[in-house]
């Protein structure tokens, strides 16, 4: 009986409400008018060739020297992208038949997904 109130209290702690950003929000204005928001540095992987020295320098400068996050876009659109990586077959080979368990935010429940 003593664990029941604790369970109820613990459940209430893990009930975040997901509210999507409305489509009419002016994102540039929001970023510029909110002191703790800033644009993330984005780099297009298609603009860099192997062995990626310039890209490595950019990533180092942004993440290590400036301490900021970086998003490297479009790896999957490159000619040298190994299409078999992260495919259904690759996931099954690397992680077995257990599938993945994403979190369903609205109901705060795990959703079992099989490959």
Which structural class should the secondary elements be placed in? alpha+beta
Low-confidence stretches: 6-12
Fraction of residues in H or I helices:
25-40%
Number of strands: 4
Query: Quick check: average pLDDT?
Result: 78
Summarize the structure.
With 115 residues, the chain is of the alpha+beta class. It has four helices and four strands. Helix 3 links the parallel strand 1 and strand 2.
Explain this structure.
This protein is α+β, with helices and mostly antiparallel strands. The chain contains four helices and four strands. Helix 3 links the parallel strand 1 and strand 2 (70-73). The chain starts with a helix and ends in a 5-residue tail after the last strand.
List keywords for this structure.
two-stranded antiparallel sheet, 2 domains, single chain, 4 helices, alpha+beta
Write the layout of secondary structure elements.
Blueprint lengths: L2 H11 L13 H7 L7 E4 L8 H13 L4 E4 L14 H8 L7 E2 L4 E2 L5
Parallel strand pairs: 1-2
Antiparallel strand pairs: 3-4
């Amino acid at each position: 009986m003593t664990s029941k109130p604790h369970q109820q209290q613990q459940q209430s702690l893990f009930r975040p409400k997901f509210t999507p950003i409305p489509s009419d929000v002016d994102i540039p204005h929001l970023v510029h008018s909110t002191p703790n928001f800033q644009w993330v540095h984005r780099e297009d992987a298609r603009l860099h060739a192997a062995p990626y020295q310039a890209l490595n320098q950019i990533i180092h400068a942004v993440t290590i020297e400036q301490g900021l996050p970086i998003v490297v876009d479009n790896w999957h659109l490159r000619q040298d992208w190994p299409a078999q990586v992260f495919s259904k077959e690759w996931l099954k080979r690397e992680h077995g038949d257990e599938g993945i368990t994403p979190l369903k935010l609205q109901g705060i429940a795990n959703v079992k997904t099989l490959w």
